[in-house]
Amino acid sequence: MKISVDLDLCQGHAVCQFEAPTVFAVPKRGQVEILEPSPDPELREAVAGAIRYCPTRALSLADDGETDDAAKGAH
Question: What keywords does the record list, in alphabetical order (predicted)?
């Protein structure tokens, strides 16, 4: 599992930080900082929530080189 961020899309809403505070940090008036770019599998649910609820869809998750559509909220 590897997290990516598109800083052109990130607007610093900090939803990711709320969902997974050990993985993401958003300073005041700043953009997301990924604290754990490859978090442990037990954090997968929290990371998926952060990605799903990101208002600008700036975050993505990959497994073995493929994008995780479930974490993006795709059906």
Answer: 3Fe-4S, Electron transport, Iron, Iron-sulfur, Metal-binding, Transport
